[in-house]
Amino acid sequence: MNIRSQISRRVLLAAVGAGLMIGATASMAAAQTVEAIKAAGTLKVGMLVDFPPFGIMNTSNQPDGYDADVAKLLAKELGVKVQIVPVTGPNRIPYLQSSQVDLLVASLGITEERAKTVDFSEPYAGISIGVFGATGTKVSKPEDLSGKSVGVARASTQDTAVTKVAPKDTKIQRFDDDASAVQALLSGQVDLIGVSNVVAAQIEKAAPGRFDQKLQLSQQVQGIAVRKGSTEVLTAVNAFIAKVKADGELNTIHEKWLGAPLPDFVAAAKK
Amino acid sequence: MYQFNFAPVFAGFDQLAMGAWLTIQLSVAAMVIGLIVSILCAAGKTSGITPLRFVIDVYIEVIRNTPFLVQIFFIFFGLPSLGLRLTPNSAALLALVINFGAYGTEIIRAGIESIQKGQVEAGTALGLSKLQIFRYIVVKPALRTVYPALTSQFIYLMLTSSVVSAISADDLAAAGNNLQSQTFASFEVYIVITLMYLVMSTGFSAIFAVIEKAAFKYPLSR
After folding, report:
1. Quick check: A187 and B174 CB within 8 A?
2. B221 to each of A54, B134, B144, B218, how far by Cα in Å?
3. Which of A93, A104, A160, B49 could form a disulfide with A46 if both were Cys (CB 3.0 to 4.6 A apart)?
4. A201 and A137 fall within a common domain
């Protein structure tokens, strides 16, 4: 009885060990080369399709947006066709690791945590949070928010960011979502709002020239991700990003989707 | 099994108390002003002046057939385009008054219509002025008749006021949402604010019962 249970425990341990080893080899196996991509003739790109304006499905139900344009440009650079694979926030890294896509142009924010599992290129896009207001409003530093009203979406990143820097006598008005905060700005119910540059681009579209950014509070750059150890592909991708930054093509894409030139924190950024 | 942790909620209790105080202030102000609006509109509606009755009918139908959230957005986000910019709290009060007025008018109108014509005629025969007749013979007995319906509409007004957090007024619901987003103790926060609303409702009911005894204690019939 005792011996039998000991044996079965050993078998179990062995099985678990073997499983771990298989798992480890699976995730190591698939380093990618440019050669292999060119041989295949298609670049398989994982992309979000539910993250406007970076990744969307357009009216003909095709993936579109900032990321799609970057992916197409990258494929053109490599001289291959592009195949966009829709992925979601939680499964995008597993898609890459299991070799179902060659790389991710999926608005993946560059973080230390993620850099442990994938290799990031230089930043190709970015999301920033800032304070926006009417062009005439004079605010250039957080202290200038004193006595002004600032609308934010309750409990959002922008709420936290504004609350952190605003002086005590700033009136922070918390709405249920970004849309209400924007509405409050447009109708003059608040002097300023804290939103991301993505929302700011929508405001610019609705009311061109009326509002501009006063302060930048935080920023997050996004990189193209390749499988760990795919140094050669990463070099090619970085060369591509440097090229499109230099010749203005990335700027054109940014203008097209976000209604503003590529921000400095992306253009000048090194990860 | 879910582990309750009320400590962060009680740490932020002053926020909730501030919110509850605004809810009470808004509710009481809206009840008083709303009651006056209701009486005036009910008087207008039963006055027999057709254009006036038509205007009041339109008001009642528009308000009773649209959501309160839309009404409050209209006042807060829409009116600034016409040059009327209200703070969140005054926009909330105005919306509550306008909303209550529509329901209150119908309730009081029902009360007024329950007064028999003969009583008004008796008042005229006694030489009372029009205002005296309206005040003592029409409104007071009418209010007594519809008092239960009116008070439940008052309570409903207080509960509806939780919607004003949508225009960034810092009422109890807004304070609860803020605290919830800071502490992530959503279940605990909502349990506490539910209890606070319950206490306020029962408190208001108790006050209404006292008012009823004080104001309408004369005998209904001999």
Report:
1. no
2. 76, 20, 13, 9
3. A104
4. yes
